[in-house]
Amino acid sequence: MFIDRVKIKVKAGDGGNGVTAFRREKFVPRGGPSGGDGGVGGSVWMESDEGLNTLLHLRYNPEHKAERGRHGEGSNRSGKDGADITIKVPVGTQLFDPGTGKLVFDFTEPGLRHLVAKGGKGGWGNAHFATPTRRAPKFHFQGRPGDEKELQLELKLIADVGLVGFPNAGKSTLISVISAAKPKIADYPFTTLEPNLGVVDMGDFKTFVVADIPGLIEGASEGAGLGDRFLRHVERTKLILHLVDVSSSSGRDPVSDYEIINRELAKYSRDLAERPQIVVATKLDALDEPERLESLKKRAKKDRSQFFQISSVAGTGIDELLFAVAAAVETLGTRSESMQAGY
Q1: Nearest alpha-carbon partner for 242 in 224, 221, 264
Q2: CATH number, position 22
Q3: Exposed/middle/buried for residue 13 (C-beta within 10 Å: 0-12, 13-18, 19+)
Q4: Are residues 204 and 151 in the same domain?
Q5: CA nearest to 217, candidates 179, 265, 185
Q6: Where in the sequence is the domain holding 35, given as residue range(s)?
Q7: Which helix (H) or strand (E) holds 239?
Q8: How far is 208 from 328, CA to CA, in rounded Å?
Q9: Which pTM does this prediction carry?
């Protein structure tokens, strides 16, 4: 089950208490203060792990608590510090404060760590308060409580290419043909209810990651058909593959479908509207009205978008499309790296 939004509670360990104690040894009638300090409470950390691709493990385990520090003891023995805990999350997870909606941290790379709740400080024992004029202090400090928070986690998939289009446009069939991904495929809308990731191997150690986004409909940017939740998985892709069904079996106009999806992308985010896009006419094997294909081709040309026509079932046009996508991903990757380097 793909889960991309959860709310969890975290509690860092409380600090251990200091202790009031005095030396009680034979032949030492007036032993000084010997109360040890309490241990520091364990902290709660969060770390991105590339071996995870969903927040499911947190859906059924929403509360996380670190170990408290041990109390101090006599003979100046300090309490043991509480153990930290680390919560693993997928790469692409964003951490929000549910009260303010503010983004706290973004786990964009594997191995990133962030302190989400700090353990409480240990209290001081009475040995800390001895002075030349106060030789027998009879008090100590309590440990401080650890941080306790509620956190909102949201996952945005990180992929090179995002497949978008109306339901039943052929996105799942395409990703099953070009990668080892095995999404559910059926001849009815909304077959795909959760995003799927696939890795395309182009040989010579060249690969790119494709995200199959569930079908979008008009009003998706405002939440229709859960579109707003699906669209955020396209935000981190370098390239959009816009799939349009040109067969008459859909009962819709290809150009209208194309324009509706682009409008929804623009409404959701201006950046998405400006993202490089390749238009792909699908279900070429079922094309019975050639003018449907030609009208979409003219519309894509008007927008200066690359245009390909394929049949995932027959394998027509797949190789040409993949080489174009691989070249675009490589170019876009080089550009983004250059921008980061300041060139």
Answers
A1: 264
A2: 2.70.210.12
A3: buried
A4: no
A5: 265
A6: 1-155
A7: strand 239-245
A8: 11
A9: 0.72
